[in-house]
Amino acid sequence: MKLTIQVNEGPYQHQASDSAYFFTKAALEKGHEIFRVFFYHDGVNNGTRLTTPPQDDRNVVSRWSELAAEHDLDLVICVAAAQRRGIVDDGEAERNKKDATNIAPGFRISGLGQLVEGGIQSDRLVVFGD
Amino acid sequence: MKLTIQVNEGPYQHQASDSAYFFTKAALEKGHEIFRVFFYHDGVNNGTRLTTPPQDDRNVVSRWSELAAEHDLDLVICVAAAQRRGIVDDGEAERNKKDATNIAPGFRISGLGQLVEGGIQSDRLVVFGD
Amino acid sequence: MSETKKFMYVNRRAPYGTIYAWESLEVVLIGAAFEQDVSLAFIDDGVYQLVKGQDTAGVGMKNFSPTYAALGDYEVTKIYVEKESLEERGLTLDDLQHLVWEDEDDDWAEKDSIRLVSRAELAEVFSGQDVMFNF
Amino acid sequence: MSETKKFMYVNRRAPYGTIYAWESLEVVLIGAAFEQDVSLAFIDDGVYQLVKGQDTAGVGMKNFSPTYAALGDYEVTKIYVEKESLEERGLTLDDLQHLVWEDEDDDWAEKDSIRLVSRAELAEVFSGQDVMFNF
Amino acid sequence: MSILHLVNKSPYERDSLDTAADYMVDGDAMLLIEDGVYAAMSGGKAASKISGMKVSVLGPDLAARGISEEKLVDGVTVVDYAGFVDLVESNDKVQSWL
Amino acid sequence: MSILHLVNKSPYERDSLDTAADYMVDGDAMLLIEDGVYAAMSGGKAASKISGMKVSVLGPDLAARGISEEKLVDGVTVVDYAGFVDLVESNDKVQSWL
Fold this sequence. Notes:
The complex is a heterohexamer, with two copies of chain A, two copies of chain C and two copies of chain E. Chain A is of the alpha/beta class. Chain A has helices at residues 16-29, 60-71, 79-85, 90-95, 113-121; strands at residues 2-7, 33-39, 75-78, 107-110, 124-128. By secondary structure, chain C is of the alpha/beta class. Chain C has one domain: Hypothetical Protein Ychn, Chain: A (3-Layer(aba) Sandwich), CATH 3.40.1260.10. The longest helix of chain C is centred in the first third of the chain and has 12 residues, at 20-31. At the A-B interface, helix 3 of A face helix 3 of B.
């Protein structure tokens, strides 16, 4: 089956991103196709490379980056939600005159249409949040 | 009276930061002293200068920065919470080998002891969160 | 996969306390361009989103409630409001905005968008959907 | 202002679903260095924090529950657990960790840290506090 | 020493108002803010949870949600942010039921 | 078309389990994850809300919270993340009661 995953909360504060990660990993291991992982609301905060979690804790952000690299996942951060919360790539930095970027490897910023398309193109949409 | 304000949620997702801002402003207008505003949990995300909210919406981050400039407020971001969530100043960037910073003007990163000290030194602690 | 899907947006949160209501509406507006068969459901605290007379001047936030009245123009015409949730909160349809759409197949007659349904009826509507969006 | 204040940390959230429980504990540990008169209260879902036998291997998160047993070493010896919250959840003290501290004024005798109190009793304890920390 | 009990969540969504109400003792006060204000609407099932108690609501949060003051439970007082500050001052401490 | 109802919050803190349970119709299934798993503990007041329904719980979330499988309400099935994926596949769609 073809899946789109939606993540509504950032790393660490809520378990949502952890649950979504383990679900996505399990789906891949079973041979399912992940059409897209869409980060919405505070979920966009999963896409910052600036986190430094404690040594004895998991690294939520780099775990997503690594899973994306391994399985060629499409990790999409909602642009409107990202602008409100300060997740920036090169294009956004230029457009909004920001002096830094913080996006993590494997993530890209795009529009809400990517979520709607996920709903249309996938067999299932699974939403993780607060 | 002397007040310490604690903010537990980031900008936009929850009203907590808005409520804390208007409460702090009203306390200042009444002549009370704000000993400190302490940003904890996802509250640290109020301290990123990378946000670009829509033109027709308030700017939660710069509102805090401006209030701090006007009243010489001590806006403290918890370092442990900030590391988990990717809020970085020059010192943190150097210490954790990050290639960018995102802290907003008027905010500083420090330890949890600053919250405890707020509890000791202030007449009231008021907590805003989810 | 190219045929039209039935999209149901389920709204269960009050406005302003959290951003979910507003960012849900943003998906609905963007999604309208994709010409799917769209419905919205307001359950539990979600019914508060439609309460009329919202005035956000004092909290410094954008008042997005007028957007609901524009949904008809986006061809979003099926808005389910759950009766039990309204009643529990002491609300009636009169407390909510009057949402309408114009039916081009009926000489642009103005028709009500809101469908007041029981929990059991809405559960049946859910059964017939293809994709649930949750806010 | 230099005298000791009574600090009450109120914990109402379950562990792991959100980080509040763990980041609350981090404040308590740091705060111990300030030598205030510290108490912890576990109410509502907060009582789940103390349930024994937590094993987080399958969710990839750090198991912080052993830290509660170390609180005695930080001279945090007053841990209030609310009876009504336990009962509502079908829990008894036997389901929770056995938390103790050593009383240096009583030849280092090991004493229980957990005080099982009713909601009404805990409300009285709250009345006597100087500062409430809320998680 | 009196407590100002702060409730910011809808009584229909969360358990915080229930617990806060149980913890109110003589001399304490309660302030409803953000989505907490819904508890003060007469006609709602949650209204009974605060009847007879010393309860205030934050006016700007009421207005944002379209609740006119006539719809409030009898005895509930409306305050603005300045009144919120005064409540914090007139009670000895604040307990936020997050 | 069957729905998998996903509940991730404690039934003591939120209203989501109540609503999800009301929306279960014949053929639907429910999966409790994260803090939602507390609903499946026998002896708790919330246990009655799921009795007689087709309910699964996520094992890793149970273990994290120190709930042994003997403490579960009768008839509740324990699944791992792979089983979670299977539940998503075997139902026609997913409704997350956030």
